[in-house]
Amino acid sequence: MRYDAETVGPLGPDRKAVPVTAWGRTAAEFVAGAPGLADLPTPVVTLDDGAVTDNVAVMAGWARAAGVDLAPHGKTTMAPALWRAQLDAGAWGLTVATPWQLAVALTEGVPRVLAAYSVLDPGVLALVSRPRTARVLVWADGVDVVAAMAPHVAGAVEPVDVLVDLGAPGGRTGARSLEAAVAVGRAVVTTPGLRLAGVAGYEGALAHDASPESLDRIRTYLTQLAAVHTALRDLYDPATELVVTAGGSAYFDLVAEALAPLHDPDGRRGQATRVVVRAGAYLAHDDGFYRGISPFARVPGSRNGGGGLRAALHGWVRIISRPEPGLALADGGKRDLPFDEGLPEVQAIRQGGTAATEPLAGAEVTALADQHTFLRLSGDAERLAVGDVVRLGLSHPCTTFDKWSLLPVLDDAHAPQPVVVDVVRTVFG
């Protein structure tokens, strides 16, 4: 047990992934009995231990080879045990997207946190203005943002590090031009309690596929981000380690291509600068959106559709109705499974819920209701019967983890009889 089984206390009905037979026992006691997949209730979403371990190692190795640092986006999992796995594998820090996530990361002892948004909450600004062991870097994309922060950091014991956020027309947040970005930098250096520490951006809002046109758009944006960093050089405090950061989970290869030449943490070529990639979905990967758009999948000859990345999340749903030929209804729905980046895909069957897992062809998820999955059946899939359990591949981990406060960890989701070896606790408020 290397995740949360040892620290999660007595189990009960507040954890929907927990079987009734485990109520009153601690998670450690439950896992110690080596329960099988058949012992879990349905619907349930599980993590594949081997896939998580491999994915963390693959991305850590990629970052070393690419010459960049990693600060994985913590919002993907909001699972401190998984954050620790990423940090233990060499991640420089962690990224968050809300004041509450920032507070959670600091509480969990994350050493460096990129707060990828404009921190305007007075309480959180007071928190990061006090002496602390963690380094926190926040975003600002306008002179108005800096002005809104100013009253709450004027008495800061330690200056708050600010990264100038560059955007693009049609994108998300971010200054819309080099001139506007430089104006933000000037406002930061003239505001007591703030310190200019680099530049930040998010290229993922500018494209949603890997077409040549989309990749060119991303490259152009990253070139502009590097130009903003160059334009701010005379404003930086020479004693500050600078951070240049971009990179969601879809285009981090292009980020390294464009920005890795700036990575100079030892300051051998000038002021110490780190290029930090913020990809987070790689830990769980998926069987949908990221399987198709992952940079690893775009490399000729990559295996598993992801260059070593494997989907670690799976849904398991039970057939509860066969009301007509060609149709089956299962017991999972929108409350349990992601659907914003594509519907789940049917992968395998466990007849009666206890037989060995085997591939299943001819079944397709056509819709999700709140608590039901609609499956269209043809060919071999017509054998699906009430009581059978189906394994689903899922798309988009970011909207999967938030549906489960506790996820069982399987030794191997593709084994004939998977075994629960741990649990992961999520923190979603």
TrEMBL record:
InterPro entries found in the cross-reference section: D-amino_acid_metab_enzyme (IPR051466), D-ser_dehydrat-like_dom (IPR026956), D-ser_dehydrat-like_sf (IPR042208), PLP-binding_barrel (IPR029066)
Domain D-serine dehydratase-like: 312-411
Matches recorded under SMART domains: D-ser_dehydrat
Superkingdom per UniProt: Bacteria
Protein name: Amino acid deaminase
